[in-house]
Amino acid sequence: MGAAGLVRGNGAFRSLFVARSVSFLGDSLGLVALLLYVEAATGAALAVALLLLAGDFTPGLFGAVAGAIGDRFDLRRVMVGCELAQGVLVAVMAFTLPPLPVLLVLVAVWSIVAQVFQAGSRSAVPALVEDKDLETANSTLGAGTNGLEAIGPLVAAVLFLVLDVRGILLIDAATFAVSAVLLSRLPPCRLLLSTGTLRC
């Protein structure tokens, strides 16, 4: 089955695909907004570098933990909880536009939660599609999320014509809410310890 047929014909995978794509688009919008905010507020390249470091380096420290969480709990609840948590974190940043030290902490926490979501969403794929469609599903998921993440800066540039940093961040927060609603449609997913496989 091709990518289009898989998305059309498998409702559970479609929900995951759209939810993850929307979430990654929001991530990209939020990052652009925060980078511009930090650069404008501090005028320091070091501050921008610290922001990128908080978002990119921190998740690597918790990669093993992120995967373990999905193994221990219902993946649907984990993913929905992660999206809601990310939405709250981004909304807090939008409403407060905190000073750099606080912002770095919030971004670090955000990136860790995002890492848990990403690990969970990847783990859910084999339970949602047949074995023969697994390769197509993984490539489709990657293409959709990476594509939207790539065009995020362009979308942000257009939005900045009519919105400020707060507005962009609130849109980002809204994407997490949309993603959470879509993910709530998935069946419960748990790891079967007897076989080491995931079932939804």
TrEMBL record:
Any one Pfam family match given in the protein's UniProt record, by short name? MFS_1
**In what way does this protein cross or attach to the membrane?**
Multi-pass membrane protein
Chief location category: membrane
Task: From the record, give the transmembrane residue ranges.
Answer: 17-38, 44-67, 88-113
Q: Which UniProt keywords apply?
A: Cell membrane, Membrane, Transmembrane, Transmembrane helix, Transport
Subcellular locations according to the entry: Cell membrane
> So which domain of life are we looking at?
Bacteria
Q: Name one GO molecular function term.
A: transmembrane transporter activity
A cellular component annotation (GO) from this entry? plasma membrane
The UniProt entry, under PANTHER family, shows:
MACROLIDE-EFFLUX PROTEIN, MAJOR FACILITATOR SUPERFAMILY (MFS) PROFILE DOMAIN-CONTAINING PROTEIN
Name listed for the protein in its UniProt record: MFS transporter
